[in-house]
């Protein structure tokens, strides 16, 4: 949610930038006006009561006293009494004490911890790669807009409008179709648009070039925004800040590549377009290795981040990649009537065979005495004994 809101604020700031530039009339003054609001970030350190630390991160790093203080501050601001039975705050604090104890030492993690992981660093590398492509390939589409119209404000506002549409597109679709699916779709459309412009530019005319450029610009910005949004959900809480910083740094490198092309007067533009178009196709294969974070709990520890699995792209069952239901399934019985009936019938056929060495042979000749004659001899013997 915070990532989406920040995306909308970024688009809104880009819309206001031309008006501020007209008012300033000089680039040093414009640079100062754009930099001064960044001083407000100092309030994160100076005013801790205004921007308190996240209790989730404090609990993940085992800073128990700070967790209690933060929870009590939140409850005071919300007007909730911890001693009230309706709000069992004391029960929560006692559970924290019983789970961690009083002698627990804080555990701090840095980005260097990624060396001992397999899944987390892979996810961070893939998302950094997709963000680098999403920001760097935008120059390939905006340059084609210059051939359609030489007006600077046309290409600028068209890029800002497509950024706003990309934010709306992500908000509408990503919660329904999933993060990984929409990221894959954005990478595919971005790569196809770039390849078509690269291969067919000399054969295409203005209208089709404009459509492919706008579509590629739209989905390249969606690719960049969704990479940041995906990184916020996939990275564990204990290293989320460092991993997100690496992902955003790769996006800045992609934007620097576009600025470098402008400084060189489009020297080497064809190579730039070929490289980023190839990277866009390669990113489609990399995205397949990412897990799905839709309706999943955000990981807190490195162990939880390592346990994230990669679901199949096409689910054969709709509930395969969802959280398990609350109702417990009955255990499977070991008795199988079909197998039992087959066993009985096979045993019966085996025992009725004539070539078995242990089968009891039935005498072919009749007995010397029948049952009635045997019974008569026994009766006579009893009368003789009685007399």
Automatic annotation (TrEMBL):
Per the record, the domain of life is Eukaryota
The cellular location(s) given in this protein's UniProt record come to: Membrane
List the biased-composition ranges (Basic and acidic residues). 298-309, 374-387
Q: Which residues form a coiled coil?
A: none
Q: What is the lineage of its organism?
A: Eukaryota, Metazoa, Chordata, Craniata, Vertebrata
InterPro entries linked: MFS_sugar_transport-like (IPR005828), MFS_trans_sf (IPR036259)
Annotated protein name in UniProt:
Solute carrier family 22 member 31
Q: Any idea which GO molecular function terms this record carries?
A: transmembrane transporter activity
Regions crossing the membrane: 29-51, 124-141, 153-174, 181-201, 207-231, 238-257, 269-290
Report the principal subcellular site. membrane
Does the keyword Nucleotide-binding feature in the UniProt annotation?
A: no
Using the UniProt annotation, give all residue ranges assigned to the region (Disordered). 298-322, 364-387
Classify the protein's membrane topology as the record does. Answer: Multi-pass membrane protein
- GO cellular component terms, semicolon-separated: membrane
Keywords per UniProt: Membrane, Transmembrane, Transmembrane helix
Record flagged with keyword ATP-binding: no
